[in-house]
C-alpha cells in the first residue's frame, strides 16, 4: 500500500492515521488524513471528479471483426481506488466499520462518512459556537455586571446601556462599568459606543430620560395593514388587540366593532364603524404613550375609568421638574356585551347591622359615635362568562335566549358541550 503507483502519476498513500475514526472525532481524523491524501493526489477519487474509465474498449481483430478488449486505464484506476479504499478502511474503528459494510469504492466510503458523522462531530467539538452562545454570553455578562444590573446598567447579551440619573455621576458610572469589564478582559468597539447621549436605541426601543417608547421604524407594518377579508383574519386581529390591551389604555373598547363582525359569521360585512375603529386602532398604536420608571418614595396616582363595555386603569406620576403627568402602567379590560355584572352591596349589609346596633344602644341608653373613616368602595366582580352561561342555562334548565336566531344557534351548538359540576366542557 505504501509503494508508488508506477505510471499513474500518484505517489504513495502512506500509513493510516494513528487515531482511529470514531463517531465523535470525524473532524480530527479528517484533519490528519487530508495532507496524506492530497500528497498522494487522490482527492479526485474521493470527491468524484476522477471517474472510472470504461472497463472494456472496442477493437478489431485480424479479420476486422469488432471485439472488446480490457482497458489498461481502467486497470490503473481500479488499482488506485482500491489502495485508497484500503487506506480509509484501515482508518476506521470497529464500531464504524459496520456502517460502511458492503461499499466497494473509496468515494462511497468517503461520502458516507461525511453524511453520517460530519455534522455530529461539529456539534460536539464546537458547542459554544453553534448551540448556546447567547445563553453562555448572557450568563457571563450577568456575572460581570452583577453589582450594577438594575442600578445603573441594563444588559442583554452584547448590548449594554449605562443609565445615569444625574449628569455629575456620569463619569463615576462609566468608570465602574469599565472596571468590571476589564476584570473579565472584555473590550468595547469604539465605533459602536456612544457616551453622554440623551437617548438611544436598545432592543428596538427608544430609551431616553423621559422613558421608553416604540421605534417608529419598527411599527411601519401597522401603517400598511390591510383590512380583514375573512373571519379568521378578524379573529387574529382581535387576539392581537387583546394581547396589546395590557399595554395600551382602553384598547379593548376600540376593538368592539370587530367583535360585532365576528357574530355575523363567515359572511360578515365590513362597515364604516369597523373602518373607523381600524383607523383609530392604527393611530393609537402608532402614537403610544411614553412610560417612565417610578422613583423611590415617589407618590403614584391611580386613575380608574369604567363604562358598560370597558374598565381601564392607569398609574401616573407627576414630576416637579416638568409639571406633567407620565404613565407608569396601564391596564384595560374589555367587557363583551351581555356580561352579567353583580355589585356586592356591602354598605347595605353594614347599614342594617348598624341599625340593629343603634336600636340596642338606645335601649341601653348608650350613644353612637359616628365614624370619620374613609368611605368603603364598592366591590365589583364578574359572575359568569356570557357565552358559556347561555349554554349552561340551556343544558341544565332548557332556557333559551329571547332572540329566535340566537336560540336556534344555541340548540344547534349545545350538542358539542356538556356540563360537569357547573362547568362547561367540550
From TrEMBL:
Residues 350-375 are annotated as: Disordered. It holds the Pfam family RVT_1. PANTHER family: POL PROTEIN (PTHR33064), RIBONUCLEASE H (PTHR33064:SF37). This is Reverse transcriptase domain-containing protein. Residues 350-362 have a biased composition (Basic and acidic residues). Residues 118-205 form the Reverse transcriptase domain. It comes from Lolium multiflorum (Italian ryegrass). It comes from the Eukaryota.
